[in-house]
Design brief:
mainly alpha; 2 strands
Length: 105
């Protein structure tokens, strides 16, 4: 992945506000690369910039990933819950209420 593509993904993720999440596929589509959700996942997993809220990116079902559990299992969920993100009983993010819409104000 080129540095430019990585920067585009990071710029998009920086726009996701606290209390909202984006999916890997959503970030890929916004970057003009609709079939590159896995590339977004790799970029977020490898991102070391604390200014990029990588924990706000989840899979298409609202699932969290172990690669964001840097301190202990459940770190990503704890970070999201601290921002007000709600989870369903099955442990996935409630995308109906928490999915970020980049075109809303």
């Amino acid at each position: 992945m080129s540095g430019q593509v990585f920067r585009v993904f990071c710029d998009i993720v920086r726009r996701v506000p606290a209390g909202k999440v984006a999916t890997y596929g959503q970030v890929a589509r916004l970057a003009g690369m609709p079939r590159c959700a896995r590339t977004v996942g790799c970029a977020m997993a490898g991102c070391q910039d604390p200014a990029v809220p990588c924990h706000r990116v989840v899979d298409r079902f609202g699932g969290t990933k172990a690669c964001f559990d840097t301190f202990a299992p459940g770190t990503q969920r704890a970070l999201l819950e601290a921002e007000g993100v709600t989870f369903r009983p099955d442990g996935t993010v409630d995308l109906e209420t928490c999915l970020w819409s980049p075109f809303e104000r």
